[in-house]
Structure formats: C-alpha cells, structure tokens
Specification:
There is one protein chain. The chain is globular, with a radius of gyration of 17 Å. About 6% of the residues have low confidence. By secondary structure, the chain is mainly α. It has one domain: Cytochrome c-like domain (Cytochrome Bc1 Complex, Chain D, domain 2). It contains 8 helices and no strands. Helix 2 crosses helix 5.
Length: 159
C-alpha cells in the first residue's frame, strides 16, 4: 500500500509541476510599472504595510495574484488593478519579481529576541506554532508547499 501511495504522490508532483507555466521575467519587468507605486520598481516596497515582492517564490506570487484577481483573497488596494491583467501578465509579473533581490529588513532590536523565540519555538500559551516549521529555519519559505519566504520582509507586514 505504501508503494502505491508513493507512486500516486510522485505522479501528482510531476503533473502539478508540468501544469505550471513559467512567466517571462523580461516581459514582467516591462509590465511592472503598474505595481511600482506600492511595491517599488524592483519589488522592494518602502511602505511597511505593503509586502516586498522581490525574491519571493514565483509560484507563490502567481497563486496570490490569481487569488486576488478572482476575489478569493480580497485586497481592496488591488481590486482595480488585477482585473485588467491577463493570466500571462500574472505569470510574467511573478517571474520578474521572483528574479529580483530582496533588500534587508529592519528590526526593532529590543524585539528581536522575542521574535526569534516565537519564530523558532512558537508560543504555546497563545497557540502560535513555530514559524520556521513552515517558512524554514532562515525564513526562506517552502515553494513546493506554498509557504512564502519571510526573510527580509517588513516586520509590520508579517506581524
């Protein structure tokens, strides 16, 4: 039975990875002006309330854009933008921002020890699991499982 389950799991991974169409980063760059007002030209948003897109996993970015466009993930600031974008536009923008380098984040040094403790071990008293269980020990995320990278992201956005 476990051999059958492994074979099915392998088949699902192969099918889902082949169903993913990669975007064109160069085309995405030429389309990114619409994103720059909030997320900056290179995806390193200067506004703490808006996420940095630079260096994020391409598939994660694409999925979030698809959810926002469909209305399944309501983001009022993007409701006027995404309807005018095609599926190819979403793929290209995702490829472009994924190809950029995220700049370092800024942290309140007095809160770093508590943040590290919660990130690594969670908070049993409030039922918060360890962040690193899904987002990795260095905040790099897990693209296959759909968990975004957190390293370098604005503290206000992630808290």
């Amino acid at each position: 039975m476990s051999v059958l389950l492994r074979a099915i799991a392998t088949l699902l991974v192969l099918v889902s990875s082949q169903a993913y169409a990669a975007g064109d980063a160069a085309a995405g760059q030429s389309k990114s002006a619409i994103c720059a007002a909030c997320h900056s030209v290179d995806g390193n948003s200067a506004v703490p309330n808006w996420p940095k897109l630079a260096g994020q996993h391409e598939q994660y970015l694409l999925r979030q854009l698809q959810l926002i466009k469909s209305g399944a993930r309501p983001v009022p600031e993007m409701m006027a933008i995404t309807p005018g974008l095609s599926d190819q536009d979403l793929m290209d923008l995702s490829a472009y921002f994924a190809s950029q380098t995220i700049n370092g984040g800024v942290a309140d040094e007095s809160k770093v020890p508590l943040g590290e403790r919660i990130y690594r071990a969670g908070n049993a008293d409030s039922g918060v699991p360890a962040c690193m269980a899904c987002h990795g020990p260095a905040g790099e995320g897990n693209p296959l499982a759909g968990y975004p990278a957190l390293a370098g992201q604005h503290a206000v956005y992630t808290a």
